[in-house]
Amino acid sequence: MRTYVVFDEITGKESGFVGEQLVARGSELHYVDRMELPTFQTLEDPGLVLILGSHLAAHDPVNAELVEAESQFARDALDAGVPVMAICYGAQLLARALGGTSYRAPAPEVGWQLVETSDQKLCPSGPWAQLHSDVFEAPPTSTLIGKSAAGHQCFTDESRNARAIAWQFHPEVPVDVYDRWIDEDEGYYREFGTDTDALKLENRERAEVAQEAAHRLTDSALDWLQQG
Fold it and tell me: How many C-beta atoms surround the C-beta of residue 224 within 10 A?
């Protein structure tokens, strides 16, 4: 199965634990830069689309053209019968693509947080790594299965020819990448009271458990997506 992974150079090709498990399940990962996103119809034999996070804000008007192009890419995939999996910015993007929305949160959601869930397979309660300043509202065609005090955390959608799942949290992120993301905006997170040193320590303590949880989640999501 060919999985096309949408990323951007600033955030990086960080499919992490999710990408690991997709490969373990027989997938070939092919990365496509959202800044130079091809039309979906030009992809060769796609089996899955994975939309990764980004430093961008999907709600910012300055990104409107890029967001619409990526939204159309996601809709075209689903209409062609190719399932879509989305993480963080990818979840915000997918929500907008399917009729929901996203916006700036009053404060960032940071650290290892529990999620209130109605589906322990497709959205286990965690705790999961969080690192975002924007949140989404699930589309009206979707089923909201996870939320936190900060907002919606996970939705599934079956309104088109293939299934989709989106997570606001970061199941994919390994320790070194999470630490790097914290360092890049450390001053911002400290403004909101985050002890970034303590968070980095917790990252290391949770590394093995986080990888195992991400692999289980990827398996559950992939099985569900392929049933559609």
Answer: 17
